[in-house]
């Protein structure tokens, strides 16, 4: 944002578009195994989707290959939005550049101390916590001190700055995270240090900008994550800008569920941390609004994890904290809850019962039925045994399904339980669905809603296959498998709003602060949230600003989000808070309440239209296959092409296209709409 | 019973765990006391209709272990036949499967179509339950009456709502009634949440199947525990460890265990432990059992559900009149988290010759508690409960980790920024205590240092810290870790404080806690 040459005014984009006939908008989601792409023509709304293998070592090349897979090249592209796990993977796998932490003297060990708690209560073999992301040798203390009101107890002396500069000069540091005590209440010392460091260190980030909220460990951890991600993100995004010189048309998907321009991401790469899952949720929110479903649970089941999220009235729930590789990352994000169970999760039978995951067969060797040497039974093997997967299909053009291998993998468990292989496979799916149901429970409970009133939106490789079983277990009555379900996160990149979000700790008692101070704080936040949008060509009058107060009773610590309008009506805010607290916890009291933090989101609504996607493959032929849904008896089951589905299909049936398999269990029926969305509901009989 | 679908059992197990996790979530998100909302000193459980534990959150092991007895003992005093839908019972007395008076339990019987099928149990460590000293920890208490208010099982709610007279009676006896009421409301809300989930499970699977499954869960855990014990070599093993003081003439008090492994059963005889001690380090037999159950599970190296079934193959003996079965009127505030840890340590010492690779050397096996109570001008109190981890003991294949919690506790520190915003305290420094870990082939983890400056005219301090005299032990020849040190700087002079003290602080006093390092594993340089 500091470099004005990066801000491409909208009219400049228009100019390029006209000149080069750039007429395609692209969304991509770069996952661990596949890169998904969706392309929409700006004039005709023609929509194409494809999947190509990801290239972790050459992500930009994989993106160009994905473009080729939908018949396009760089000069065709007008807008390119992508979600990527690149930053998250680097953080989790700790392939990080050398980062230094600058902290208040006496508090340099903040990362190593953490919060003491261990993750595993009953295991001594695993270390109770991970080593700090920055080793002690690269943590530096500067003498200065603020109190919690921001008052200066000890000024930051020039001699301290000189001492720090000398230390940095003596060490080869690429990136510095600055996190001083109580900087959220007064950023002056952090700002001063950042200015002085900018000349000698390539990347500097300050905690009051990354996460201006109290609790020093969580803030320091988030700031260090950001500092570690900066060199990686800048290198990657610069390369991408070269390959796709689209100016403001090149965008990245934000963990909070919106698009942000590249210059912003280079300063705050942390916003990409949950980019991929957030894009899927964002597409879900759009569908929920378009189809008028007030409560939606997203169900995105992949190979190793399953992500779920709750969407109420077209808006996804937000969260403040998430653990990345065992360390806290604190920033506003979509409240995507992930569990370590996916198609590749290994099934184990111990004396204590049958469990699924968290160990996974991964992509190599993968499930036994992939025939690549995997011998341990997985959820996918259970699906193969039951006939849900097409034995003729070649997954990703490389894998030929081996149902016998799946049976061999499950046989030992079946023998131990004295059951048939098919019954055991059904049982495995039941247990897997119970783990999924627990995840759905978790996200609905946090919001205090009854999950059974929700519509289940199923996507990802496994979502549409497990949806009816999960719905039966959880008591859901409607499932939607959206068009483009196999590249849904890519679609989300394209259809999301253009938006930016800013949040700051204020800790004001609800009654007794001057209205002018409140208005001033809001103005500052609005300024901070709208500037990146305006700088990238969005007109101020097109931006809608949403305000949320994070509120709690004075004696509590967890704050609940309560939306409000300006000018502030204190009485209404208080009433709304009490109602929300009652809704969540079943009681409310007359205690004094506090506004812990203010959150402002600037949104430019998206209106990208798209049409029924072309998967670029011929439709599968209608036929029949033996499938098992209950007991040990196989029933002849209709296999129907998704592209040409007409009328109401009564289960049992399996609906397929090149990239997805939808299981319609007995007791369910399915129909498609013009867009290619599938609606699964319970059969009347 | 054998006809039970094994998959439905797993489905219900997930449902019970989810319900208990939801209880803890409701507690941490809506409770008032920092000890609950920041420190997480609370636990949630679900039991069957007989009080046998079947589901628990990922909370505090010592609570979870004791909760296996909490409802079972309650039912002996309050027959289930007298309970009605909508009832909730509150109590904290030790005789009913209790541990110490600060841990207040709320129990809700769950009825489905008039049939009692389960209990939801919420335990929370209240920062003050009245008594002699703010915070309810009195180091030299001679009996429990000096410690805190004793609450026998009384109805705190019924179908018609909260029982106001009982609530008022309780609130009249605590130092922070406003926070206390909020915490108690959160406990009631947590048990109501569990009640909803249990009813859903019954509606989905049928009440009879649900009840049968609970019983099946016990059998499965019993099988897992028996298989684990079977792996251990038969024999008799003895071990001991010591509390800093409490013995005759202030000598260290002894915890001794004699373990007999026979086939798939194990006997733990703790009779050789010291007599009742003249301070707050006594504990209840339930806590001794809880500590043994934890150690047995750890030594198994297996994932298993901690329920009543897992206890069946274990015989646990305590001696009446001893520190582990001191009688109903003994002071027990600290024994809950101090003496219990020493039971685990004694068991580890006993098993060291047989399975050293499954154990860790000695670590911060103490609550590391420092409670600051600040009297406010309006006669209310602000309580800061600080609990501190230290260096983990080393293992056969790795160094110990610094600044962590071990074994029966898992509470967090309070951030310096939260302390300074809420209390008249400035944190002068928080750092790793380098070189506190014991040397060895693998090194023990390092402890932490935190200094508190008092900004108020006065403050009441309680220390409750073990491992200040008896160092965390090394394993297989490793060296011990450095012990805890607590100092007070006042008017330029520095004095060392006892790990079990109640004292008045003045403005500008600086109290510094240095927590212990872990013991090493294997000979150093070897």
Description:
The complex is a heterodimer of chains A (685) and B (526). Chain A is built from 17 helices and 35 strands. By secondary structure, chain A is of the alpha+beta class. Chain A is globular. Mean pLDDT of chain A is 86; it is low at 1-10 and 12-19. With 526 residues, chain B is of the alpha+beta class. Chain B has 2 domains: 6-220, no CATH class; 360-526, no CATH class. Chain B has helices at 6-30, 34-37, 61-77, 164-171, 177-205, 207-231, 285-300, 308-311, 339-351, 416-422, and strands spanning 42-48, 53-56, 88-91, 103-112, 115-125, 154-158, 161-162, 235-246, 252-262, 265-269, 314-317, 369-375, 381-387, 425-433, 447-454, 458-464, 485-490, 493-496, 500-506, 510-514. In chain B, a hairpin with a 2-residue loop joins strand 17 and strand 18 (493-496). The radius of gyration of chain B is 23 Å and the shape is globular. The termini of chain B are far apart. The interface between A and B is large, with 66 and 85 residues.
């Amino acid at each position: 944002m500091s470099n004005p040459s990066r801000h491409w005014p909208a009219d400049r984009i228009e100019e390029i578009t006209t000149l080069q006939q750039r007429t395609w908008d692209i969304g991509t989601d770069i996952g661990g195994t596949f890169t998904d792409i969706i392309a929409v023509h700006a004039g005709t709304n023609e929509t194409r989707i494809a999947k190509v293998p990801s290239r972790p070592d050459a992500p930009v090349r994989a993106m160009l290959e994905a473009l080729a897979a939908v018949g396009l090249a760089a000069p065709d592209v007008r807008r390119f939005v992508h979600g990527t796990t690149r930053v998250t993977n680097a953080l989790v796998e700790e392939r990080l550049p050398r980062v230094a932490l600058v902290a208040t003297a006496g508090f340099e060990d903040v990362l190593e101390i953490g919060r003491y708690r261990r993750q595993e209560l009953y295991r001594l073999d695993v270390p109770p916590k991970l080593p700090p992301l920055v080793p002690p040798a690269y943590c530096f203390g500067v003498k200065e001190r603020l109190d919690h009101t921001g008052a200066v107890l000890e000024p930051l002396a020039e001699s301290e700055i000189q001492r720090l500069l000398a230390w940095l000069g003596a060490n080869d540091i690429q990136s510095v995270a600055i996190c001083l005590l109580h900087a959220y209440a007064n950023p002056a010392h952090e700002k001063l240090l950042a200015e002085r460091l900018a000349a000698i260190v390539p990347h500097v980030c300050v905690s009051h900008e990354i996460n201006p909220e109290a609790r020093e460990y969580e803030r320091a951890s988030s700031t260090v994550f950001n500092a570690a991600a900066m060199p990686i993100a800048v290198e990657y995004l610069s390369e991408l800008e070269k390959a796709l010189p689209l100016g403001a048309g090149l965008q990245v998907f934000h963990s909070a569920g919106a698009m942000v321009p590249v210059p912003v991401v280079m300063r705050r790469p942390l916003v990409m941390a949950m980019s991929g899952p957030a894009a899927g949720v964002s597409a879900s929110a759009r569908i929920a609004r378009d189809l008028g479903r007030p409560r939606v649970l997203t169900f995105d089941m992949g190979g190793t994890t399953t992500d779920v999220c709750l969407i109420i009235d077209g808006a996804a729930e937000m969260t403040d904290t998430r653990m990345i590789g065992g360390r806290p990352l604190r920033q506003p994000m979509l409240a995507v809850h992930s569990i370590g169970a996916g198609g590749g999760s290994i099934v184990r039978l111990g004396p204590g019962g049958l469990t699924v995951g968290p160990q996974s067969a991964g992509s190599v060797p993968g499930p036994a039925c992939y025939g690549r040497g995997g011998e341990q039974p997985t959820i996918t093997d259970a699906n193969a045994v039951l006939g849900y997967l097409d034995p003729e299909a070649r997954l990703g053009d490389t894998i030929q399904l081996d149902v016998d291998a799946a049976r061999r993998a499950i046989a030992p468990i079946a023998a131990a339980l004295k059951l048939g292989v098919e019954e055991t496979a059904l049982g495995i799916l039941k247990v897997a669905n119970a783990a999924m149901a627990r995840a759905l429970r978790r996200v609905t409970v946090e919001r205090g809603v009854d999950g059974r009133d929700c519509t289940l939106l199923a996507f990802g490789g496994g979502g549409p296959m497990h949806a009816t079983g999960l719905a039966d277990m959880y008591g859901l009555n409607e499932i939607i498998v959206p068009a483009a379900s196999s590249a849904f996160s890519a679609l989300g990149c394209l259809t999301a709003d253009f938006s930016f979000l800013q949040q700051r700790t204020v800790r004001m008692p609800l009654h007794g602060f001057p209205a002018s101070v409140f208005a001033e704080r809001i103005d500052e936040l609005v300024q901070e949230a709208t500037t990146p949008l305006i700088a990238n060509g969005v007109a101020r009058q097109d931006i809608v600003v949403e305000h949320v107060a994070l509120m709690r009773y004075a004696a509590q610590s967890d704050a609940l989000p309560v939306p409000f309008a300006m000018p502030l009506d204190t009485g209404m805010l208080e009433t709304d808070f009490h109602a929300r607290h009652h809704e969540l916890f079943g009681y409310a009291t007359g205690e004094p309440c506090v506004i812990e933090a203010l959150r402002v989101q600037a949104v430019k609504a998206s209106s990208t239209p798209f049409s029924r996607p072309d998967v670029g493959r011929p439709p599968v032929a209608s036929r029949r296959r033996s499938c098992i849904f209950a007991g040990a008896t196989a029933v002849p089951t209709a296999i129907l092409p998704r592209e040409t589905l007409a009328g109401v299909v009564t289960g049992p049936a399996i609906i397929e296209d090149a990239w997805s398999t939808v299981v319609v269990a007995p007791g369910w029926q399915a129909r498609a709409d013009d867009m290619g969305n599938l609606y699964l509901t319970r059969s009347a009989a | 019973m054998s006809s039970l679908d094994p998959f439905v059992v797993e489905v219900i197990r997930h449902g019970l765990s989810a319900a208990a996790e939801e209880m803890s979530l409701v507690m941490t998100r809506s409770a008032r006391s920092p000890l609950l909302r920041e420190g997480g000193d609370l636990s949630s459980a679900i039991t069957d209709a007989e009080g046998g534990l079947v589901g628990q959150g990922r909370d505090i092991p010592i609570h979870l272990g004791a909760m296996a007895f909490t409802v079972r003992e309650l039912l002996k005093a309050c027959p289930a036949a007298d309970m009605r839908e909508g009832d909730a019972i509150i109590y904290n007395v030790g005789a009913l499967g209790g541990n110490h008076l600060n841990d207040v339990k709320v129990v809700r019987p769950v009825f489905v179509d008039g049939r009692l099928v389960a209990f939801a149990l919420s335990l929370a460590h209240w920062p003050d339950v009245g008594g002699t000293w703010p915070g309810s920890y009195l180091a030299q208490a001679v009996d429990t009456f000096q410690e805190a208010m004793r609450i026998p099982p009384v109805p705190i709610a019924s179908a018609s709502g909260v029982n106001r007279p009982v609530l008022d009676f309780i609130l009249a006896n605590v130092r922070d009634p406003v926070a206390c009421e909020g915490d108690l409301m959160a406990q009631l809300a947590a048990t109501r949440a569990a009640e909803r989930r249990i009813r859903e499970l019954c509606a989905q699977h049928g009440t009879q199947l649900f009840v049968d499954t609970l019983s099946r869960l016990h059998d499965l855990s019993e099988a897992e525990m028996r298989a684990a014990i079977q792996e251990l070599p038969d024999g008799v093993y003895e071990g001991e460890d010591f509390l800093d003081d409490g013995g005759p003439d202030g000598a260290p008090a002894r915890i001794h265990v004699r373990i007999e492994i026979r086939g798939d059963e194990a006997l733990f005889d703790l009779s050789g432990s010291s007599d009742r001690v003249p301070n707050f380090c006594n504990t209840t037999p339930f806590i001794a059992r809880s500590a043994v159950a934890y150690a047995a599970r750890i030594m198994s190296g297996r994932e298993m559900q901690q329920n009543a079934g897992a206890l069946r193959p274990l015989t646990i003996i305590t001696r009446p009149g001893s520190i582990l079965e001191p009688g109903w009127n003994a002071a027990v505030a600290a024994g809950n988290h101090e003496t219990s840890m020493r039971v685990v340590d004694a068991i580890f010492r006993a098993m060291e010759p047989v399975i050293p690779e499954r154990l860790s050397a000695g670590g911060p096996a103490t609550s590391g508690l420092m409670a600051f109570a600040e009297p406010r001008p309006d006669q209310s109190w602000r309580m800061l409960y600080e609990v501190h981890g230290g260096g983990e003991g080393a293992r056969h294949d790795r160094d110990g980790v610094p600044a962590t919690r071990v074994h029966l506790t898992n509470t967090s520190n309070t951030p310096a920024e939260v302390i300074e915003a809420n209390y008249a305290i400035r944190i002068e420094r928080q750092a790793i205590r380098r070189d506190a870990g014991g040397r060895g082939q693998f090194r023990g983890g390092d402890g932490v240092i935190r200094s508190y400056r008092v900004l108020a005219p006065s403050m009441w301090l309680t220390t409750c810290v073990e491992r200040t005299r008896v160092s965390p032990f090394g394993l297989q020849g490793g060296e011990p870790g450095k012990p805890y040190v607590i100092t007070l700087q006042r008017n330029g002079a520095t004095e060392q404080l006892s790990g079990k003290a109640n004292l008045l602080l003045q403005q500008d006093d600086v109290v510094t806690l240095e927590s212990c390092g872990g013991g090493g594993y294997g000979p150093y340089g070897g």
